[in-house]
UniProtKB/TrEMBL annotation:
One of the record's GO molecular function terms: fucokinase activity
Organism listed in the record: Ceratopteris richardii (Triangle waterfern)
A Gene Ontology biological process term: GDP-L-fucose salvage
Official protein name in the record: Uncharacterized protein
Similarity comment: Belongs to the GHMP kinase family.
Amino acid sequence: MAMSREDNVPTILSRAVYNLRLSVRCPERVPTWDVILLTAASPQQAALYQWHLDRAKQRGTISQSALALAVPDPDGIRIGSGGATLHALRAIVQNIFGVESLLENSSLTQASDSQKFQSMKVLLVHAGGDSKRVPWANPIGKAFLPLPSLVTDDTNSEGYSLFDYILAVSSYVPQGFGKQGGLFLMTGDVLPCYDFSHFSSPNDGVCIVVVPAPSDVAANHGVVLTSPAEMCGETFQQVIDLLQKPSYESLMARGALSANNTVLLDSGIFSVRGKAWENLIKLSIEDPDPVLMLLEQKQEVSFYEEIAAAWVPSQHEWLSNRPLGRKLLDALSFHCLISYCAHNLTFLHFGTSMEVLSHITSYFGGKTTFCRSNLDMGDSHVVRASSGSVIASDITGTVHVGDQSLIYNCTLKDGVHIGRRCIILGIDSESLTTVQGGGLSLVVPDQHCLWEVPLIDSNSRVTLCCSIQDNPKVSIHELGKFCGKQWEDVFNHLGVGGDDLWLQTISSKERNLWNASLFPVVSAGKGIIFAMWLMGLLPDHDNLVSEWRTCKRMSLAELHGFIDFQKLHEEFKTRKGKISLQLADASIKCGSLHQDLSNLCMEILEGLDAGKDACEDLLTLYLNPKFDAFKVPQSRTYQAGADLYCALGDVENAAAFERKAWDAVAKETAIAVEPSGGIYAMHFSHVFQRRRVKVELPARVDFAGGWSDTPPWSLEQLGTVLNMAILLEGCAPIGVELEVTGGTGVCIADDAGHHICIKDPAMLHPPYEHADPFRLVKSALVVTGLASSTNLLCTGISIKTWANVPRGSGLGTSSILAAAVVRAIYQAIGADDASEKVSSAVLLLEQLMGTGGGWQDQVGALYPGIKCTSGSPGNSLSLKVEPVSLCPQTRRELEKRLIIFFTGQVRLAHNVLRTVVRRYLQRDPVLISSIKNLVSLANYGREALESGHLNEFGRILLDVWLIHQELDPFCSNEDVDRIFKHVHAYSQGYKLVGAGGGGFGLLIANDEESALIVKEVLTGLSVRVYGWSISE
């Protein structure tokens, strides 16, 4: 059965990434992790992981306030996932309370009892150890497998790692913990695609997440046996036994099969809270240290077996005879393990190379991202199948990449040919020229992995290869394979024997790929040649085989202890810095300025020793051509300059260029509205045709697409907005009355009691004070040309305005009031007051006022009913307004289920608008993709309304609200969050209207009965619910 948009993996992960970014940027509203722990196999691997964690803080996927630690097994000695958990928790105390606390048991006890420690929300990800089935990932850590981004479609974004997505899906959990602390434990090679905003766990106890799955997969996983109960819904059940990779017969005998022949798989996800959390902490800091006991006894403890068994009474007898068994029982057996069944969880296990490629192809799609091949200079080209992925690589010339292949952190030159379903990591094909004089190009056959690592205390490297289907654990006698061939065929083809690969002391069971001394320690280029030979691509091998025999060689098993992770890290940073410099340089030279120069300069400064000099060269290049040489609007040109100056620490020039960027936005908007150049076009000879005019307009509520109507986006990109004109309490709430008087000048009054009379028309012109309550009417007089006409020298006018809605409503009041004033002036002088003309004038008016703003507010009120409006970029702004037709039943249902209310808080769009517009001017790829998503959601929303699917329409509103918070995390606040939390269970979706920050909100209730409950809940929160109707 095909998944709905609601349940599919990309949608779930995209939402999770948005929630993660929101929690990191605004933790006071959306709680985030206090501590993030990664277990590592060795100090060297931990150092690499720590770099990843520090970089995650820099990239905004871990909060700056969080303690993020990579904790290695002591001295690189394996202690199991349970031992690693206890060791990592002890490391928290060491980092927070100091090393000396670990030396005094009384201090440790005091620390564990402290409220600060118990209230900490801790995420622990098991990422240590070597992966035998994904050996190419060991140098980077399997948790940091590169994956394309689902949040941005920008080809020059770096993408995300598996760990980033793990952070994303887990980002909902701290919110569910509330003010209480706890541990949330996950594994680094599994991505559980699930909306964890639905997850709950006992406040005091231990919970394991289980997933229903067909019985035939149980043989490779842990299975959880729960107490007899109805196996439906997402409910808690007590765990009565843990079965490790059971057979079908065992499942039958134990009653682990449900009526539909499914079992409950152990997901590897645990939540530990309350007293159980406290007990686990106390165990980790006991004296003597339990981990030291494991080291002395040379034993390991698994979290998923030994520690979990302490919470399952049926396992206690078995546990008592296991390492640390009695200690685990004494400390942890007070609680029983509870299961939480996540029925819709999609379990992505990155356990083999084939699984990695399959998941990338199925759920992430092929992309070429953050590569030199994306330059506009024409010197690089990737011939890539649509499902291939090339990430963070320097590509020069023509490089062929086959279907479903993954290329990461490579430098590939002209002539390289990568087959289908290949994985290439850390390879520099240019090194071949140093050993072959350019006569040999890198070729990788279908379904092969090729990777390279530097070694500690050596200038040599090791280049490794295997097939994606190879299982390094399978021995030669069990028909194990290397590069897709059985070992006998490998020996015959290469002219080598088993004694070349394995010492005679190695048992037949251990004679497998994992322990085979295949890979020479040589220079990079020579290593590639040997790898091509091992893959069967160099048949004339007589010289190679003799040379291979004389080389020092390494196996996959021994490699981990010799990898120079620091050099690997430095090389990765340097390659990223070089690619960033190339991208920035090409962006300036070709005149497109389409790159986010601010972000690229950060990568250049971090990755290159001469990073500052490189950024200065970029600034010189930028300043050299005249501005008209750039193929972009001046607003973008000036912002690029501001970003370059800012990267170099020149605050004064950066501020000056940013001011020029904002001035340019206003000018570009004026030209788009009045392309002929007659900005305030009007026949000044016009006299007033009507002595009195009254204009009343409805309010508007926006459903989706907001921000895509705002300059400069709307001048350069497609914009689409779905909104509705409404009456509140039966009335059009916004209006103006214009009256021609006998005197001269202009008298202005509003419903707040402000009043002014201006005799000199010159005083109507800008600049305006920010606090001037009359600048809207003054600007309307300017853009209509009336302020510059001779009329006001001999005739006076009085203009009264009102808005019968709370201040800061978010209903587009300011823009709609401006539209009412403009229309009243046009009617008074007998000019064309068509909605399209009025809308354009308001767009110009708001730039003149300095508030900015787009076209959706005035369009929402000027055109009746629900409509989907699209703006086409070009030399002049053109709008297409299409009514949305509702069948009578859908309209009645909408009127009963859509609730409009005032939060009681005032909002101001101006500050939010500046934040969003600046990010667009910088070409922030996440913002650009977010607004494109809003445009798509506007179209989805229209389809949902016209087809009568109000539940889906409600979920669309939730997606819109999530993206609005990505654009500006302060568009909501704790009071608004509290309101939405109270009504969440009764609604399909909700959002604040407009830019957010306060004002009005809207909500789609689950049904008519829920709508009544929501109104009662809101009233109980002192939130006013408004009666509304569609304005036709």
